[in-house]
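Case study: Serine hydrolase domain-containing protein.
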Amino acid sequence: MARAGTVARRATAGLLAAAVVTTVGAPLAYAADRQTPTKATSGTADGRQPKGLRTAVDRLVADGQPGVIVMTRRGNKVAHLGAGVADQETGTPMDPRLQIRIASISKTFTATVLLQLVAEHRLSLDDTVDHWLPGVVRAGGNDGRHITVRNLLQHTSGLNEYALDPRIQTQPERVWKPQELVDIALEKKPLFEPGKGWSYANTNYILAGMIIEKVTGHRVESEIGRRIIRPLGLKHTSMPQGTGFSGPYVHGYYGSYGDVSTLISPSSGWTSGGMISTVDDVAKFHRALFTGRLLPRAQQRELTTTRAVIDDGTPENYGLGVYRVRLRCGSAWGHDGGWPGYRTWAYTSKDGKRQAIISYNQTDEKLQADPNFRADLKKVTEAAFCG
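Here is what the predicted structure looks like once written out:
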């Protein structure tokens, strides 16, 4: 399974913030003190589950995840499973209806809006960043006159990652402006000439969001809402302004630091990873996207034209804000997302007949690097997607 071990790099804009957040003092220590031991539980389920999925999901809880949610589709048959707890303090069971932070799955929303604007002839994928954001990328040897919109969406810009900077890591509650995040990345020289390499960087999608706002004259949250969220009826999906949720939510835990659910400003992720949703809303969005309901044919081809890349030692095929992986029963499209306390994997077949959305609520790097945990996660993915 792709990228089970890429948490440190793929985690969206601040995943490592909680690891060094002891500098902000009491909140995390208090959260850690409130933790109580959790044992594996069969949890809840609806619909007819694929064979072996319940056992595989329970293994993830036994491995150390507080809770796990799975949504699975095989044709018209949809099932949801919840195991473990959504809140360690209260013991509230994991429930697929609860909101989660979807992190880098936000990138697919951003890419979709930009491709819709391309279809409307309001910009081109070959436009340069400097064309829309004059002078914004002109520092540290980085030059927006040579970086295209396509480079941003495909992570071929050569721009550095801003999220690992100590200023991001040690100020989790700060409300960041997009320009501030970009400026951090521009302090370093480019990794390669635009188009001459591949390196995943949240910086690309912050700039993509800024371009959406420049082209439309509207806040990007408004455009995502008007173009995707409302037409698809994604009632539990949004890009929040504050650290809270808009409804009942899964509590997220970061290793020994405890409950970090509402301690990190989503502004550090914004259009790269600041959204919240539910497994059903993510599934509905991806099914509409990959079956061609959101983009004209030409832009659909652009979305799913991939290049073979190596991400943290793992081969994958990356398109424009989406990727393709090979599972036992065929190819799956989607994206994954990591945020302190949350990890979500989303897979959809191109015909929309198979789906698997998997989310769990602890980002413990030691656990996620454990070969046994990774093997168990692969079993969940294969069972949920392939049946």
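For the exam, be able to explain this: Residues 371-386 form the longest helix (16 residues).
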